[in-house]
Specification:
The complex is a heterodimer of chains A (192) and B (108). Chain A is mainly α. Chain A has nine helices and no strands. Chain A starts with a helix and ends in a 7-residue tail after the last helix. Classes of the chains: A mainly alpha (192), B mainly alpha (108).
C-alpha cells in the first residue's frame, strides 16, 4: 500500500478513536494522547523551554479533553491539537515575559569571550541547541510560532498555515524573515 | 552550518512515560481546576485592560467636553460686548453706564 493509503488509514483510525473518546471511552483518549504527546511536547518546549514544557503539555491535553465534545471536525484533529498547543505556549510565554519583564529588552545570544576557542570547536551539540533555543525565544511571537511548527516540528507550510489561521504565503514569508533574524543571531555558530 | 539542520536538532527530547502521565492528569480534577482558574485569570486580565482603556477614553472625552463648552460660553459672552463702546477708562465706563440708565434701558 502507498503512502496515501497509509495516511488515510491513520486518519480513519484517528477518527474512530476520536468518536470513542467523545463518547467517554478513556482508553481511546489515552491512545489519542499517545499519538500526539510527542509533537505537543516539542511545540510547547520550542516556545517555553523544557523546564515548563510538561506542565504546558498537561494544560494542552486538559483543554483537549474538556473541548472534545465541542470539536466539530471542521479541521483535522491534529491541526486542532497543534493550534491549542501553540495558543497555550504563546499565552504562557507572554505571561512569563511579563513576569520577567524582558519583553523589550531581549539581547542577542551571548557571544564567546575573547580568547575562547572558536564556535566550531567550543560549541558542543548541547550548547548549540541551547543557543538556537535562546535565539528562537528572541523572535517575535508570529515568527516564533512558524519556526517552531515548521523548523522544529517539520510540518508542511500548508499545515502551519492552517494551525495559525493564516495564508500559506504568509507562513512562508514569516519563515523566511525569521530565518534571516536567526542567521544574524546565530552568525557565529553558523560560521558566517 | 545549515540553519534547517540546526533548527531540527533543537527539537526537545520527549521524556519517557510522558504520554501516560499526560493522559492520566488531563482527565483529573486538579488539572481541570487549574485550567479553569487560568481562564478566569486571563479573562480578568483582559477585562482590567478593557476597563483601563475605557477609563482613559472617558476621562479624555470629559476633558474635551469641558474645554469645548467653556470655549463656547466664552465666545457667547464676548459676542454681547459692544466693542465700539468698550473702554478701559473707569470714568468713561461709568459715564456709559449712567447714559444707559438714563435712557431707561435699565428699568421698565
Amino acid at each position: 500500500m502507498g503512502a496515501t493509503g497509509g495516511l488515510t488509514e491513520d486518519r480513519d483510525e484517528e477518527d474512530s478513536l476520536l468518536a470513542r473518546a467523545r463518547s467517554g471511552d478513556g482508553s481511546a483518549f489515552e491512545q489519542l494522547v499517545e499519538l500526539h504527546a510527542p509533537a505537543v511536547y516539542r511545540i510547547v518546549a520550542g516556545h517555553l523551554g523544557e523546564t515548563d514544557a510538561e506542565d504546558a503539555a498537561q494544560e494542552v491535553f486538559t483543554r483537549i479533553f474538556l473541548g472534545l465534545k465541542g470539536f466539530k471536525g471542521d479541521a483535522r484533529f491534529a491541526t486542532w491539537v497543534y493550534r491549542i498547543a501553540t495558543n497555550v505556549a504563546l499565552t504562557r510565554g507572554k505571561k512569563k515575559r511579563r513576569r520577567l519583564g524582558f519583553e523589550n529588552s531581549a539581547s542577542p545570544a551571548p557571544e564567546p569571550e575573547a580568547g575562547e576557542p572558536g564556535p566550531h570547536e567550543s560549541l558542543a551539540r548541547g550548547e548549540q541547541r541551547d543557543a538556537v533555543r535562546r535565539a528562537i525565544e528572541q523572535l517575535p511571537e508570529e515568527f516564533r510560532a512558524v519556526v517552531v511548527l515548521r523548523g522544529i516540528e517539520g510540518l508542511p507550510f500548508e499545515e502551519v498555515a492552517r494551525v495559525l489561521g493564516i495564508l500559506r504565503p504568509t507562513a512562508e514569508s514569516r519563515m523566511a524573515r525569521a530565518k534571516e533574524r536567526l542567521r544574524t543571531l546565530l552568525g557565529r555558530i553558523m560560521g558566517d | 552550518m545549515d540553519l534547517d539542520r540546526l533548527l531540527h536538532e533543537a527539537r526537545a527530547e520527549v521524556p519517557e512515560g510522558l504520554a501516560a502521565r499526560l493522559a492520566a492528569s488531563a482527565r483529573g480534577a486538579e488539572a481541570q481546576r487549574r485550567v479553569f482558574w487560568a481562564d478566569v485569570e486571563r479573562t480578568a486580565h483582559r477585562a482590567l485592560t478593557v476597563a483601563a482603556a475605557a477609563a482613559v477614553l472617558t476621562i479624555g472625552l470629559a476633558i474635551s467636553t469641558v474645554v469645548t463648552s467653556r470655549e463656547t460660553s466664552n465666545a457667547q459672552r464676548l459676542s454681547f460686548v459692544d466693542l465700539s463702546s468698550a473702554s478701559l477708562d473707569p470714568v468713561e465706563s461709568a459715564a456709559a453706564r449712567l447714559a444707559l440708565g438714563e435712557s431707561g434701558e435699565d428699568g421698565p
